[in-house]
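The step that takes the researchers longest sounds almost clerical: writing a folded protein down as plain text. Below is the pair of lines this work produces for a single protein:

——
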Amino acid sequence: MASFSFDTSRFESPLVMESKLKKAVLANMRYWDGPVEEHMKHHAPWTDRTTNARNGLAAQAAKLRDAVYGIILRHSVDYGIYLELGTENMKARPIIQPTIQLYAPKVVGTLVRILDRLH
């Protein structure tokens, strides 16, 4: 999981900067959730039978806790976990973890560039 921390104490008005920072972080997550979802839907490594699993892939930006933001990747079908992890009779065909590995550096990189412009 990619993460970073940022010290707002070097700014003149930490409260104003904290508000701007939170808005910028959430906006960055919202910027990326569409491309992440599109990637999952176009690169899911299984053969469709009903397209329910592929169409049910989703990525959504969210504020998870007070100052914790992220993009939630999920399946909407109940058998999505089996596609990700496999079973005794079926090999795993993961899309969520590979997508995280591909996009986490991009999301964090964009955020770092935004933060560099704030000071």
